[in-house]
Amino acid sequence: MSAATPDTALPLRFRRSRLLLRDAGIGVALLALVAFFALAAPDFLSGTNMSNILTQITINLILATGMTFAILIGGIDLSVGAVMALCAVVAGTVMKLDALPEVVAVGLGIAASLGVGIAAGALNGFVSAFWGVPSFIVTLGMLNVARGLALEVTNARTIYDFPDSFIAFGTASLFGLPVMFLLALALLALGWVVLTRTVFGRMIYAIGNNEEAVRLSGHRPFDTKVLAFAVTGACVGIAAIVYVTRLSIANPILGVGFELNAIAAVIIGGTSLSGGRGSLVGTLLGAIIIGVLGNGLILMGVTDFIRQIITGLVIILAVVLDSYRARLSRSLG
Amino acid sequence: MSAATPDTALPLRFRRSRLLLRDAGIGVALLALVAFFALAAPDFLSGTNMSNILTQITINLILATGMTFAILIGGIDLSVGAVMALCAVVAGTVMKLDALPEVVAVGLGIAASLGVGIAAGALNGFVSAFWGVPSFIVTLGMLNVARGLALEVTNARTIYDFPDSFIAFGTASLFGLPVMFLLALALLALGWVVLTRTVFGRMIYAIGNNEEAVRLSGHRPFDTKVLAFAVTGACVGIAAIVYVTRLSIANPILGVGFELNAIAAVIIGGTSLSGGRGSLVGTLLGAIIIGVLGNGLILMGVTDFIRQIITGLVIILAVVLDSYRARLSRSLG
Amino acid sequence: RAAGGTPKIGLVMKSLANEFFKDMQEGAVAYAKKRGGFELIPVGIQSETDIDGQIAAVENLLTRGVDAIVIAPADSRALLPPVARAVKSGVKVINIDVAFDPESMKKRGVDIAFVGPDNRAGAKMSGEVLAQALGRGGKVVIVEGNPGAENATQRKLGYQDAITAGGLTLIDSRTAHWETEEANSVFTDMLTAHPDIQGVMAANDSMALGIVKAIQARGKTGAIKVVSFDDIPAVKPLLESGALLATVDQFGSQLAADGIDEALKEIGGQNLTGWIKTELKLVKGKGAA
Amino acid sequence: MTPMLSLRGIGKRFPGVVALDGVDLDIAQGETHALAGENGAGKSSVIRLLAGIHRPDAGTMALAGEPYTPASPTDAIRAGIRVVHQELNLLPALSVAENLLFERLPRRALGFLDRRRMDEEARALLDRVGLADLSPRAPVEGLGVAQCQLIEIAKALRSDGGRVLVLDEPTATLTPRESGRLFEQIEALKARGLTMIYVSHHLAEIFALCNRVTVLRNGRIVSTERTADTSPPELVRAMIGRSLATQAPVSGGPVGAEALAVRRLRPKGAPPGPGLDFAVRYGEIVGIAGLVGAGRTEVLRAIYGADGPPRGEVFRDGKAVAIRSPRDATAAGIGLLTEDRKAEGLVLSMSSAINTSLAALPRVTRAGFMRADAERAACVRYAGELATRLSGPGQPAGQLSGGNQQKVVLAKWLFAEARVLMLDEPTRGIDVGAKAEIYALLGRLAAGGRALLVVSSELPELIHLCDRILVLSRGRFAGEVARADFSEERILGLAYSGYMGETAS
Ligand SMILES: Nc1ncnc2c1ncn2[C@@H]1O[C@H](COP(=O)(O)OP(=O)(O)OP(=O)(O)O)[C@@H](O)[C@H]1O
Ligand SMILES: Nc1ncnc2c1ncn2[C@@H]1O[C@H](COP(=O)(O)OP(=O)(O)OP(=O)(O)O)[C@@H](O)[C@H]1O
Ligand SMILES: [Mg+2]
Ligand SMILES: [Mg+2]
Asked: For ligand 2, what atom is nearest to the CA of residue D267?
């Protein structure tokens, strides 16, 4: 005999294909949706509309990329919308400093947005990891703090009239695709590499899986947690810049409810709310589903209230479909 | 040895006191808060103000009671605010049916609200348990469906002018306490009995901890899950009635964001977001903390934005304090 | 009460996160400082729909023993019970911004004076500028505020009045919940579905900002005309460039101050009722007739 | 010579439990030192102190003469102490290689994983524990308990076990084949002069592998002796304070009617073929033997409906029953004690009493309300019968020692009183004294007319317990052995047969 574990090869191959299928599951839901809208709304497949959809999902995609880090490590970040507003108004304030040359002001503004985002994220991570308190509550607190700060620093006013050179980015295109979307995609790809190819990424999955086991292996989950939330925060900072360049305003009440959209993209994409399982590929698909749904129903001329009802139903349907895919792949495996 | 349980009596007493301490932890935070406001805002401790606070937390308390069931079993219900609006407008519509005698119409309206709430909750539970999909997404979908339906049935209009006999309940007092608050308290007490003393409650905790072990012990977690979400829904139906009797209107946009407040009360109260751990006593304290905070800061005359910032900080502080309590009780134990 | 020193006036606002109400409150505070002789206690609520929070605010003001309340109600009926209770306990109440429902007031046996602009008339003024620019048969869409919000309803009605009067064709009407980003997305999609849109009526300036960006992104600047409501500072450049054809200033910063004035009159013994209309001004952008 | 590890006056208390009390222990450089003792005696507690998970309340530790005060597992690992804990601590969503190398993932510049080196290192480690055919890139979830245990062991073998290698019941889930492989590794490490601490309830292993053995009882040291100077019976006496009567094989009662039968049963992952046919009668104890991965667990799970409706037919009392889920199975009077107590058997954070009653709630309820006293009484009763060491019925199952957790799982199924009881590795981690009690208990159950189906990786256990043994090999029955023909050689021969291609014996 000696063939110790004789039939492992087979299930392994199965498992590989199962992984592909896993992402494909929600992809099928997306394809179905696209096919439906292509038939139901003539303009849906047009180039402009595709480009519009990509523009519309850009901010959610960036936030969801960051949110994926927080959720994978077993946490959640409810503060992204409010912190985004804070980032935007801080960046806006800096960019409008007359004392500085335009380029410098814009550069500093971007840096400030990133800085605020990272600081808020790291603080979320620090408080929840250091005192071992649920990130749900910590980030709920941060939501209030950030929103209050944003209102306080602007006194509830909208900041507007930014340098044209900066605003131009918001609507620029490259190879027919919105530059901002390409940026979001690049960020997602970077995140994917980090999550799947680096020690930091593996640590995130590991902590989300079994934090105790990570500790027993001689690691300190604390550092990784703080860093993961800082990544979420960095994405928020970037999203804020994208917002300002696209809409050329920064106000303290922007981003209300964006956290739910971002979380929805992550969870529809198959990432487990309890951490440790999921991928950014899923998040991309999840964000696109949400975007396509909003766009397609308007193109079809569905009225507001009915649109909201259908949106709810399709979100549920997508994950239900996904569960059949999971069952199928389980019975195959 | 074989002396199976040598020192049973001692540790049991230990455990009892630890449990008390567990709830006490967040209670200490509450006491500190009350003491602070008593000093900082002279009117805070007045009878009218106490009664105001109780009235103000009533709806959140009812929703949080229901939410505790959903979270303990390992789920969450994001749809409570929207379903509450749907319940309210359906109840409102029924109550205004001219064909019916007033008493009958009011009775039917209350029944309708409960019915809609229970149906929505059971549907949430059914979909998430049957297809094994995260309740986060299912209830997010339900949020949209219910809100859309509420807007559609009312065409975004407010329903008003309810029978006085019904409205009178909203402001009635008993022994100097608001009747509606007493109702909420009774509901919470009932929930506490169900959770701690019945088979159903036992199942909820066990499933929240380890669903697989429960299933393999020969149970069907499915039924319990559907029922638990139906309880959440029933609480929503009751909250809707309280809303209507208190504010004497029913409109389709009421309850926006109420889910976050309810979840916050539950989590501040020490219930674990991943299920299986927590108590309604904690939820009560959590809801009171949120209520006292909002009320006290207004009485102190803190401006709105600063108030929001402080609210955020205190929420974080409360759970951090609670973590010290947990550490303390662990080291005692 | 007034006998015991300077009168206290509570000012109950809606969400101060809204620029309009923030202006209003600041105007009131400035006015209080200028005029003197009374103490002003301003309070706000977290969100537009936080009726419960506003009731709590009213109750808290009563706890603090104010002599008068100036209120911008979050709901035209739900706030009446506590306010009516206040009136009956001798507290003077002045209603600003959104009027209490007359029937409900009658039922509760109170008649509270309303100081505020006519949103519907204002929207009609703004809409008429668009009607004039497009001529009869012009194809327009409305981007609405929060469904169920009184202002949103009034402004939509006003726009519809202008559409009827000007012979315009309304091809779509959707909500963007008062938000810039959502308005940008929603209008972009409306434009895809109806490439022949010639004009937009936005229920507030924040949404107009997003709509103008969507028009620019399509390269249709000038081809699609926009009117809106509020006249916040951020739309100044749009008015100057003509990207925004018109908006309406309802002098929000004076509204609360006016309300306080009336409240002081009541404390002084007068009894005010009915609608004390405040000024509305049409602000025209470049290119508007 | 200074000992490698030295413990002086170590004490550790938990609420209501004194886990360790004045423990003095010296582990010499290069020796393999066994810790023995009943369930809950404190063996794992010693190890958790060494591993930096807990801190002693009293006493001092020294490593190679230096004071040793680990504040966290990190410190312990830095000091060169490597531990295979009694319970699995793997990361299910991560790959085999990542789990193996998790303490220090091979990295390149910028924190990138060095996947090639990872595969290579992982392969080498898998090789050493006999998992050569497992792909390093496969995720750990979906692997059997035994494979997971081997991965835990392989993890600790990296860098040749550090300075001190601690193995806490490493063989509890392994069949003789894997255990043998492990012993080869231990011998090789011994030859290199590595210091080891070895915990096991299998006395034979202790005598075969270890130089000295320390016996713990109730948190105190009873004796430390060279294995050459003692004997298994003496050791047992030291552990449980009395001799263990040599036991006659368990004898069931008079064999009755057919209680459970399966026809053409095809469990999950079963090879193509006609499926399995067998029956168990009332009063009978039937064993299922096989190597790890032979599919024994899957047979029990299939009958129980744990993976959905079974493919094939199941008969109870001669009548076909439709089983779609475990609930149908329990309704038909079938119980299953699962193999993985942590994930499938227990609700760890809830009390022992709650865990005891979990499969028999109607027995402790009245009109939908729990009868807490009845529940506690049941827990106390079974704790007595199984000699479970717990501080009280309220103690959370997760705070019990491994063996005592297993006893609570057993208590759950005993309390449920299923007419047909299937047990998957029922004595995993249970001490010798209690094991004897449990065998007697199972015998009494059978004598009382129950039908028992037992899966075990310990052949002596099956031989002692069963009336018949079915041998599974690669998902197929390789044969059935009657009590008269029981021998380890015979059964092992059959177990291997499926892996020998055409020349099956
Ligand atoms: N975290 C804890 N809280 C309370 N009691 C504990 C805790 N950990 C261990 N104990 C108790 O300490 C005692 C010793 O447990 P330990 O795990 O050391 O036993 P063991 O000798 O390894 O037993 P086994 O052979 O069953 O593994 C047990 O009574 C156990 O219940
Ligand atoms: N890589 C794998 N992929 C899929 N299934 C596997 C894989 N390895 C093992 N299995 C399944 O799990 C079972 C292995 O489980 P385990 O190692 O516990 O062996 P067992 O015979 O089922 O039970 P026991 O451990 O009691 O011997 C195999 O029978 C096989 O069906
Ligand atoms: Mg142990
Ligand atoms: Mg097995």
From this structure: 31
Give me the domains of chain D, ranges plus CATH numbers. Answer: 5-238 (3.40.50.300), 243-333+419-505 (3.40.50.300), 351-416 (no CATH)
Chains touching chain C through at least 3 C-beta pairs below 8 angstroms are: A, B
- Tell me the C-alpha distance between A1 and D503, whole Å: 10
Contact B126, B189 (CB under 8 A): no
Ligand 2 binding pocket, CB closer than 6 Å: A 8, 11; D 142-147, 269, 290, 292-298, 339, 425, 455
pLDDT at C23 over 80: yes
> What are the residue ranges of helices labelled H in D351-431?
352-357, 372-385, 402-416
Mean confidence (pLDDT) of chain D = 91
Residue A333 lies in a domain: no
- Distance (Å) from CA D360 to ligand 1 centroid: 26
Question: Does residue A274 fall inside a structural domain?
Answer: yes
User: How many structural domains are present in chain B?
Assistant: 1
> What is the chain C residue with the closest CA to A147?
C17
Instruction: Assess whether pLDDT exceeds 50 at residue A5.
Output: no
Q: Which residues of B fall within a CB distance of 8 Å from D345? A: 213, 216
pLDDT more than 70, % of chain C: 99
> Cα–Cα distance between D245 and D233 in angstroms, integer?
10
Predicted confidence at residue B24, as pLDDT, reads 61
Q: What is the CATH number of the domain that holds A190?
A: 1.10.3470
Q: Is the CB of D389 under 6 A from ligand 1?
A: yes
Q: How far does residue D352's CA lie from ligand 1's centre (Å)?
A: 14
Residue A43 contacts C where some CB pair is shorter than 8 Å: yes
pLDDT at position A8, please?
31
- Does residue A2 form part of some domain? no
* Amino acid C50: pLDDT: 81
| Residue B300 exposure: Cα atoms within 13 Å on the Cβ side | 19
ipTM confidence: 0.90
Q: Say whether B158 sits in a helix, a strand or coil.
A: coil
Cβ-Cβ contacts under 8 Å, B81 against chain A: none
Least CB-CB distance to B247: which of C78, C107, C153?
C78
- Return the number of other C-beta atoms located less than 10 Å from residue C124's C-beta: 23
Among residues D303, D296, D299, the alpha carbon closest in space to that of D332 is found at: D303
Interface test with C, best of B298, B302, B303, B309 (most C CBs within 10 A): B298
pTM metric for this prediction: 0.91
A5 found inside a domain: no
**Residue partners of C66: CB distance under 8 A and separation at least 6:** C8, C9, C10, C41, C91
Whether the pLDDT of residue B332 is over 60: the answer is no
Which residues of B fall within a CB distance of 8 Å from C16? Answer: 304-305
Lowest pLDDT segment from A70-74, A320-324, D234-238: A320-324
Domain that holds residue B306: 10-327
CA distances from residue B195 to B202, B272, B280 in whole angstroms, order as listed: 7, 15, 8
Mean of pLDDT over chain A: 89
b/e for D54-71, b at 16 or more Cβ within 10 A? bebeebebbbbeeebebe
D86 lines ligand 1 (CB under 6 A): yes
Query: What is the three-class DSSP state of B175?
Result: coil
What integer pLDDT is reported at residue D490 of this predicted model?
92
CA A55/CA A180 separation, integer angstroms: 7
Beta-ladder partners of D223: D215
3-state secondary structure of D445: helix
Q: Which has more confidence, A5 or C254?
A: C254
Q: Does residue C253 belong to the interface with chain A, where contact is any CB pair within 8 Å?
A: no
* D369: helix, strand or coil: strand
Short-list D70, D54, D61, CA closest to D9: D61
- The angle subtended at Cα B147 by Cα A300 and Cα B76, nearest 5°, is 115
Tell whether D95 is within 8 A of chain B (Cβ): no
